[in-house]
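Worked Example 4.2. Consider the chain below.
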Amino acid sequence: MKPIPAEFRHNRWPLLGSAIGLACGVNAYAPVSSMFLRQLEREFGWTKTAAAASLLALPLMALALPLVGGLLDRYGVRRPALASAITLALCLLLLSMMNGSLSVFYGLFLAMMVFGCATGPIAYTRNIAASFQTHRGSALALALIGTSMAAMLLPPLLAGVMAQRGWRGGFQLLAVLALVGGGLAFALIRDPVQRGEGTARLEGLTLRQAVRTTPFWVLCVGVLLISTAAFGFVSHLQSIVEERGLPAGSTPQLISTISFAVLVSRLVVGSMLDRFPPQRIASLALLVAASGFSVWWFSGASTGLALVAALLIGTAIGAELDFLSFFCARHFGVRHYGQIYGCASIFFNLGIALGGLTFGLLHDASGHYENAVVFAGVLLVLASAAFAKLGHHTHTPIETNQ
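Applying the procedure from the previous section yields the following structure tokens:
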């Protein structure tokens, strides 16, 4: 039996705290958003378009990420993340009390995404990137498993609560989880800056210097292509399944398969990033995901082939945040990780919005989703080529810990 590496022994509790914080943070809402929207539509008579318009808060929230990242770089993660968790819980409680006004819903939803964003990857991956060097890819993958576990476990738990107490009880459950998860994360994680850890770990480029480098823009474009392809497909999955003539119960099965693929891909890809040239691993993983769209194209009405396709496509959905976190720290250091990650995250969230819009436009133009599926596969091939160009470690430390 191999001994546990020293990096994991010394940082096991902060790693657990980061995973818990991510599992109970603002990202926990996305996988269950449709459960709330369906009930709100029925109770208040909202149209699907009106309810889904709240998701436009994602790109708006992304604009605040560089500012939030700067605060995390300056003050550390623990206190901002705890304050963000408390604010997130407050917004969720207020959502549980609303009376059906769309303007109130939009306002609270936007506030939840903006003020709760420090409970997401921009915060909890920062300390992991600073505390791990040799096993950084594996550590980031383990931390981000928190979001995967939430996506797998929260829907059935939430369904039971909402069956008894409706959507109001659902929002209240999420509020409790935000408080509990934020409190546990605060107790378990540590801020390397405050602990005075080695200066090499806290060196790196400034945001101004990072945006002048080729790797920054290659990374941003690559993340944009991945999120556009992957989330465009997922956001229209129910309609795509119906168009293919697959059995009515196929969608939940496909969602579960994708969630499983996300979990596995994070572990496997994260470990491989530490052992092999990371740009090649990223490129290969995206080609595997692109092959999933090829399988879907030829699957017809075969449920088995559709499940294989979902398994392959899930590789991209599981790996994009791993790539963003890993390559930000690798190429630009961790001194200003929050700001740089925040700017790159704008492209990730923009891709989520563009994906749903593009799939809808391509469907409306042709009357089917076949062209959209091909388009998504092409985007992943282009993303694979982009990550292959990232090359070797390039960041030059310019600052030391004061």
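Residues 136-188 form the longest helix (53 residues). The radius of gyration is 20 Å. Compare this with Example 4.1 before moving on.
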